[in-house]
Amino acid sequence: MALTVLGPHPARGPILFRIDVPARMHVRLAVFDVAGRRVGTLLDEELAAGAREVRWDGRNARGEGFRGGIYFARLASAGGQRVARVVLLR
Q1: What is the domain partition of the chain in residue ranges?
Q2: Which residues of the chain fall short of a pLDDT of 50?
Q3: pTM for the complete prediction?
Q4: CATH topology of domain 2-88
């Protein structure tokens, strides 16, 4: 299982994540602030083996934009977890 940040880093606009899963499995991709609070869940479903791209526009479920700063994306499944650091500029 792999989690990769695609595109410019740090980012001023949307951030694109690439998820690679080796077999069919349930995964959750969530974003956390530096205090460890979950600020959004981008994906929570069963995926087939292979690669998939997921876009995060830097907003919460209510459409409010987050401040610039450091955030962590965590991809979790029964097989483990992967974490990627992202920097959002505003």
Answers
A1: 2-88
A2: none
A3: 0.91
A4: Immunoglobulin-like (2.60.40)
